[in-house]
Amino acid sequence: MPRGLLITLEGLDGSGKTTQIRRLAAWLKSRFQADDPIVTRQPGGTETGDRIRALVLDSRQTGLAPMTEMALMFADRAQAIAEVIQPALEQGRIVVCDRFTDSTEAYQGGGRGLGSDAVLELHRLLCGNLQADLTLLLLPSLETSLERARRRNQRTSEQDGQDEGRFEQEQDAFYRRVWEKYREIAAREPRRVVTIEGDLSIDEVHEKIVEAVAARLVAATPSTRIAQ
User: How many CB atoms lie within 10 A of CB 185?
Assistant: First the structure.
């Protein structure tokens, strides 16, 4: 059985990933005979990962050292690979993942100043160096992303009491470092990373995502799996 396809979406909180993942999943389901895709997220997506997510994103969590934060992200990722991602790929499935190691490189490597080398080495050791087949990097302007993310987290907190705004408490300089690290990753790996940049409409972003995914599917997916 051919290996499945791992598609990751990256970007700052507020970049529109959640909306675009939902639309991409619907597009894929309409074109495939199987129940693809499997949609997951990091941190989270497993029982262990959801506990880690609650810890690292809760704004009430203070004093978490950058190295501890990075270690928790990789603990979540290693569990997700073992429990969700790798089994699905071995079954020939399509996996769409909201964030992967690029997020750790951007947020902890760039934002926290830990550098890329430590992130990439941990990925090799703990994640078997598993690489996405396609990464869609959403990069609206920094100002737009931050405004959306802070507004969304306030709304979510008011509606259901869920607090995932720990990173949004950071200063704009932190996010500038994250944003620039994402651009550095995209420049380093142009064959894997497709950057969708600018303050585009939801429909415009979706069209660019579909174009990129369709091209990768033609190259990597047996034609018998594509609904005619």
Answer: 22
